């Protein structure tokens, strides 16, 4: 999925900030967003693993339909869907073209097509779930499921600290720019400019690492004074933190429907 | 009989990997319900001392620790930091880094939640209520102002309802109005809830107004602990340690040629009025205000033409930062831009540096349109000194920091220039050190030297005296004089009214993104309505001279003192001391 | 409370390294995700990632915490926040990446020895990318029913992955991992540790590189490092998967919930049970440490 990621180059810093807020906190109002995070995680675990081992075409197609439904319910942003499609298609195309060099023929398209479907099911499942899942809830769910508290803390801390980090990074880069000098010639395809900016980008981490060290010292001291280490080994605290988790009618309905649907797909595959 | 809540018995401490003793046989006892200030120059061990109170030292830092610290009746080395923290709260100087959670209410209730207290939400809300920020309970951290963040950091610690609250430099990063607000909160906690409050503080005026007693530290030792009035009256001793007592106390000290401290000197404004109103005044008035303006050159160096600036915040809402700015700056002016946080000071100077581009209108710098030029290009004429000097440090030695600009532009004989600058800013000795590892004052000096090395026409300083102790501050003012030899125009954005009063020839007052006044110190400091609107708090000495009903405001202690006959021998004034 | 004898960090110092590594590598990852890659035919010259950040921290501090922190930072900043979280797929990257960084960190004994740093960095990168390549090939293997039956497919997968591996090692590996690490490590050594209130890693141990690096040693150290990494990882993290079970059953109260997730549970839980049994055996050890 490298391509799908590299295509994201059009994102600007502003875009990142905006997207961050949207993905982070704009998710609670969909049907999936209102479900219990644990339901979503289990549902996702099934669809992220099982398709790999299914080679039956009917089941795969019905899974794909199910995923499309979920993607619709999760109101996944169109940009992400578009990038996802391009990524899948180009990856498979490249694979196909290269296989031709090694004596492959059109017959390889068949299996590659089903591989694509499989990948699509898995990717859509993750996109649908993780756009619906508020990261706070996700990290709480991880905590409840027994993942170390440091991990779930890091998720929410990441959201807290990102604006600060971007701000600091911005200032450091500005220092380089205000006191440095860009190359006079841009060079073929702006390669000189590219090198200039890459160099600044790498160098900027020298001050960032040192500043970060100071920051993390205060943060960890403060964590200690706020009893964080006390909470990491305490089951009651974990329960208290996730006390708002509860299974509602919608969760049962969602699970029951999923089981019914999966059962139906398997039954269909037996008869056809 | 009041019980001591903190007892430090012969404590010494050395950080791992260091030779120097940060604490050196320190002894101290703090009573329950005290409001105490710890003072001392940079590096005297104030923060380290406070970290022994909640057990961070020696449990968190594995260094050489000797002696014993007791919190209540518990010895701190025998309990975990978390356990002790239920009783003692610590608010850091860099308080932003102790805010852990993305939203206000989450952060406020974080500690009680970690301790598994069922009523963690109520506690969080209560703490927000006490600190007066309950209206922003559901906001995200990144939407808060500096002042709100500081109150949140306090609230997050308060939610544990501790017996002791330590606040490291509560006002260092705040404008005077917000600083006052923070102290009012601390006072309330002390008086209404009986909380013991410990502050590390440079600002003697706040100490005089709020604290009960003062502890002076020097090189890891505790020199003394005295009631506030006695402590602040020891003017000469304090100055020796780089602490400046309130201006009123300094003035009173100067007026008294014969030492006579039976009841101590006046330390607050009210006491100052009482004290000075009986002093014989010099007649006729010795000063005439220097009202002549710097001759206006026909050609401005910087001009703003109907400039406006908007930002888009994270929620994609447009925020108007500057409205219709229309003004010009000329060569030789010493310009101070004042106003509260969020008034638009920094944005204004960033426009000149070309770091931000206006949404509409134009900014011209030496006939270049700043709107179009890249920061690299403007860097030739304008240099911008950040509020936090560390953000300017990108190399690993001071010499390299200063060279960077000259080398990148292949300036011939740059070594000579670097040498001169190192000498001018008294950095020759330190040139191979990493700037980050220096003291606050030295860092500031390096940042000014970096700017001077760029040989700009215009230099822009954002809060050059923030976070400095008063002695270092005086040094910075002196550095500004050095800078003058290197540049044509200096523009400063600042909260520091003392600096403004002593240094600026032109003061621009900003409020909510607009320039609401522009004039010299006489125009600005004499206009009470204006000051109130802009939320400015004038230096104590000016206020005193106004309150005493003197014919005109006096700006420095020297001016003030020369207005009175000093009292010699058994003068009249003694009756009132 | 005396000065420590060997290089050992307290739990909170480890946490500092963890947070530092997580936030900075996370930030860098966000940028590298946004930098366009240069496409030369099928070969993609991408920046991929700023591995020098975790490498530097692994070499200077506790390798495990820096490595795991960085891997987690990538997931949080580069994936979750950009809305690109790949779920299970990230687990593989998490493990291979942190393993590679960890190995690089333990291979370097003296941070000021450039040869050692170079060797450590290259070894770490090679392990990370090689494992990643194997997993990628494995995915196609599992995903396509009869891979061998389709002529050319297996070869093309290997060619593509091979080119990607070379790119990762030679292009981004040297430019964005090796060179910056060589630049940063000596500059930060002795300077960053006091900021975290700790002592620099001991550099008194001197070996000549030729003496210690033999092919046999490399193989053995990789195997040992993997074991060490996994066991240390498990002992440091208090995985306790399964606490939810009773409560979960109570709430659902029906047996049929297990039908759809049994397949998933079979695969994931087996792995986690193995992990848990290991971690239980390590609990005593952990208590002794704590």
TrEMBL record, chain A:
Q: What InterPro entries does this protein map onto?
A: ABC/ECF_trnsptr_transmembrane
What parts of the sequence cross the membrane?
41-67, 79-102, 108-130, 189-209, 252-271
Q: What is its main location?
A: membrane
Localization, per the record, is:
Membrane
Instruction: Please name one Pfam family that this protein belongs to.
Output: CbiQ
UniProt topology in membrane: Multi-pass membrane protein
A Gene Ontology cellular-component term? plasma membrane
Which protein is depicted?
Cobalt transporter
Name the species this protein comes from: Lysinibacillus odysseyi 34hs-1 = NBRC 100172
Automatic annotation (TrEMBL), chain C:
Q: Which Pfam families match?
A: DUF8171
* Cross-referenced InterPro entries: DUF8171 (IPR058484)
Q: Which UniProt keywords apply?
A: Cell cycle, Cell division, Membrane, Transmembrane, Transmembrane helix
Report the residue ranges that make up the DUF8171 domain in this protein: 16-282
The residues forming the signal peptide are: none
The source's domain of life comes to Bacteria
- Which protein, by its recorded name, is this? Cell division protein FtsQ
Native species: Lysinibacillus odysseyi 34hs-1 = NBRC 100172
Q: What is the lineage of its organism?
A: Bacteria, Bacillati, Bacillota, Bacilli, Bacillales
């Amino acid at each position: 999925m490298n391509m799908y990621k590299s295509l994201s180059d059009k994102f600007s810093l502003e875009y990142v900030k905006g997207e961050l807020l949207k993905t982070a906190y704009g998710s609670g109002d969909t049907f999936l967003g209102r479900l219990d995070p644990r339901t979503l995680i289990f549902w996702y675990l099934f669809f992220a693993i099982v398709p790999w081992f299914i080679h039956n075409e009917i089941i795969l197609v019905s899974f794909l339909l199910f995923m499309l439904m979920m993607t619709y319910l999760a109101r996944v942003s169109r940009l992400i869907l578009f990038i996802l499609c391009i990524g899948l298609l180009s990856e498979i195309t490249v694979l196909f073209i290269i296989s031709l060099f090694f004596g492959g023929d059109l017959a390889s398209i068949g299996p590659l097509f089903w591989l694509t479907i499989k990948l699509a099911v898995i990717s859509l499942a993750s996109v649908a779930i993780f756009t619906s899942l508020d990261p706070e809830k996700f990290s709480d769910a991880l905590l409840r499921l027994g993942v170390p508290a440091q991990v779930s803390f890091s998720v929410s801390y990441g959201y807290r600290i990102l604006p600060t980090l971007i701000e600091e990074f911005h200032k450091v880069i500005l220092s380089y720019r205000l006191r440095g000098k860009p190359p006079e010639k841009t060079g073929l395809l702006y390669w000189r400019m590219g090198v200039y900016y890459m160099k600044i980008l790498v160098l900027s981490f020298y001050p960032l690492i040192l500043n970060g060290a100071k920051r993390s010292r205060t943060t960890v001291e403060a964590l200690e004074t706020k009893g964080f280490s006390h909470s990491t080994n305490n089951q009651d605290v974990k329960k208290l933190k996730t006390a708002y988790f509860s299974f509602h009618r919608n969760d049962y309905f969602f699970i029951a429907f999923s089981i019914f649907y999966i059962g139906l797909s398997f039954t269909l595959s037996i008869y056809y | 009989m009041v019980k001591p809540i903190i007892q430090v018995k012969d404590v010494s401490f050395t950080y791992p990997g260091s030779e120097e003793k940060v604490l050196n046989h320190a002894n101290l006892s703090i009573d329950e319900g005290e409001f105490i200030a710890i003072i001392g120059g940079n590096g005297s061990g104030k923060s380290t001392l406070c970290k022994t109170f909640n057990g961070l030292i020696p449990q968190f830092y594995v260094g050489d620790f000797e002696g014993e610290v007791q919190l209540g009746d518990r010895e701190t080395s025998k309990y975990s930091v978390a356990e002790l923290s239920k009783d003692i709260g610590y608010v850091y100087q860099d308080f932003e880094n102790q805010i852990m959670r993305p939203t206000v209410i989450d952060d406020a209730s974080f500690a009680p939640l970690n301790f598994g207290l069922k009523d963690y939400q109520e506690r969080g809300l209560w703490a927000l209520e006490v600190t007066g920020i309950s209206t922003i309970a559901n906001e995200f951290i990144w939407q808060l102002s500096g002042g709100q963040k500081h109150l949140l950091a306090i609230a997050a610690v308060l939610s544990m309802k501790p017996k002791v609250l330590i606040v490291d430099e509560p006002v260092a990063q705040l404008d005077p109005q917000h600083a006052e607000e923070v102290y009012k909160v601390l006072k309330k906690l002390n008086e209404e809830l009986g909380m013991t409050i410990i502050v590390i503080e440079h600002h003697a005026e706040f100490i005089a107004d709020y604290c009960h007693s003062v502890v002076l530290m020097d090189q890891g030792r505790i020199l003394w602990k005295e009631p506030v009035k006695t402590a602040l009256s020891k003017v000469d001793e304090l100055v020796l340690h780089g602490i400046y007592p309130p201006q009123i106390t300094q003035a009173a000290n100067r007026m008294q040629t014969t030492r006579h401290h039976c009841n101590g000197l006046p330390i607050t404004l009210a006491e100052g009025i009482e004290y000075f109103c009986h002093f014989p005044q010099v007649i006729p008035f010795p000063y005439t205000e220097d009202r002549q303006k710097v001759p206006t050159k026909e050609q401005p160096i910087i001009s703003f033409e109907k400039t406006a600036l908007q930002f888009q915040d994270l929620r994609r809402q447009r925020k108007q930062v500057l409205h219709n700015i229309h003004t010009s700056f000329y060569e030789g002016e010493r310009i101070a831009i004042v106003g509260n946080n969020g008034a638009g000071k920094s944005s204004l100077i960033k426009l000149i540096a070309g770091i931000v581009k206006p949404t509409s209108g134009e900014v011209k710098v030496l006939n270049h349109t700043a709107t179009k030029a890249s920061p690299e290009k403007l860097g030739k004429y304008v240099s911008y000194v950040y509020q936090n000097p560390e953000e300017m440090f990108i190399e690993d030695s001071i010499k390299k920091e200063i060279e960077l600009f000259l080398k990148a532009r292949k300036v011939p004989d740059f070594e000579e220039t670097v040498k001169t600058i190192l000498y001018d800013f008294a950095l020759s000795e330190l040139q191979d050190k990493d700037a980050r590892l220096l003291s606050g004052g030295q860092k500031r000096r390096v940042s000014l030297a970096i700017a001077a090395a760029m040989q700009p026409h215009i230099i822009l300083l954002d809060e050059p005296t923030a976070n400095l102790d008063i002695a270092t501050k005086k040094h910075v003012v002196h550095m500004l004089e050095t800078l003058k030899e290197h540049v044509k125009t200096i523009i400063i954005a600042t909260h520091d009214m003392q600096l403004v009063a002593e240094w600026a020839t032109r003061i621009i007052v900003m409020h909510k993104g607009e320039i609401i006044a522009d004039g010299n110190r006489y125009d600005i400091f004499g206009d009470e309505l204006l000051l109130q609107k802009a939320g400015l708090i004038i230096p104590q000495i000016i206020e005193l001279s106004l309150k005493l009903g003197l014919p005109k405001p006096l700006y420095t202690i020297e001016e003030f003192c020369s207005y009175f006959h000093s009292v010699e021998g058994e003068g009249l004034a003694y009756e009132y001391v | 409370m005396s000065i420590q004898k060997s290089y050992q960090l307290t739990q909170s110092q480890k946490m500092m390294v963890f947070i530092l590594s997580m936030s900075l590598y996370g930030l860098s990852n966000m940028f590298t995700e946004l930098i366009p890659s240069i496409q030369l035919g099928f070969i993609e010259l991408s920046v991929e990632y700023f591995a020098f950040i975790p490498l530097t921290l692994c070499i200077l501090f506790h390798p495990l915490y820096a490595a795991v922190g960085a891997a987690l930072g990538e997931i949080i900043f580069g994936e979750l926040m950009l809305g690109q979280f790949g779920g299970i797929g990230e687990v593989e990257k998490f493990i291979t990446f942190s393993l590679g960084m960890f190995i690089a960190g333990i291979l370097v004994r003296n941070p000021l020895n450039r040869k050692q740093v170079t060797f450590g960095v290259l070894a770490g990168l090679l392990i990370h990318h090689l494992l990643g390549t194997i997993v990628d090939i494995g995915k196609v293997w599992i995903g396509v029913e009869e891979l061998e039956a389709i002529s050319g497919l297996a070869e093309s997968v290997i060619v593509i992955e091979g080119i990607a591996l070379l790119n990762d090692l030679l292009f981004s590996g040297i430019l964005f991992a090796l060179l910056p690490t060589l630049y940063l490590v000596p500059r930060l050594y002795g300077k960053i540790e006091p900021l975290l209130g700790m002592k620099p890693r001991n550099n008194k141990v001197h070996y000549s590189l030729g003496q210690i690096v033999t092919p046999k040693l490399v193989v053995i150290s990789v195997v040992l490092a993997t074991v060490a990494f996994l066991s240390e990882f498990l002992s440091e993290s208090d995985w306790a998967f399964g606490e939810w079970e009773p409560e979960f059953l109570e709430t659902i109260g029906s047996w049929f919930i297990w039908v759809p997730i049994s397949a998933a549970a079979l695969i994931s839980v087996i792995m986690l049970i193995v992990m848990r049994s290991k971690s239980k055996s390590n609990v005593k050890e952990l208590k002794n440490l704590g």
